[in-house]
Amino acid sequence: MNDAETATQPDPGAIVRRHRLSTRLWHALNAVTLLVMLMSGLMIFNAHPRLYWGEYGANFDPAWFQIGSGARAGQPFGFVQLTDTRIDTTGWLGLWKDPEGVVQRRAFPYWITLPSSYSLAAARIWHLAFALVLAFALAAYLLVSLVNGHVRRDIHVTRREWAPRAIWHDVRDHARLRFPTGAAALRYSVLQKLAYAGVLFGLLPAMIATGLAMSPGTDAWAPVLSEVFGGRQSARSVHFLCAAGLVGFFLVHMAMVLLSGPINQLRAIVTGRFRLPGGRTARVEENQ
Amino acid sequence: MSRLLLSRRGLIRTGSLTATGLALSGCDALFDNPSFRKTLESAEDFHRVSQRALGGEALAREYTKADLSPEFRANGSRTVADALYRRQLAQGFAGWSLRVEGLVERALDLSLDALRGLPQRRQITRHDCVEGWSAIGEWQGPQLASVVTLARLRPEARYVVFHCADLYHARPYYESIDRLDAFHPQTILAWQMNGAPLSEAHGAPLRLRVERQLGYKQAKFVTRIEAVASLAAIHGGKGGYWEDNGAYAWYAGI
Question: Which residues cross the membrane (chain A) (predicted)?
Answer without folding.
Answer: 25-45, 125-144, 194-217, 237-259
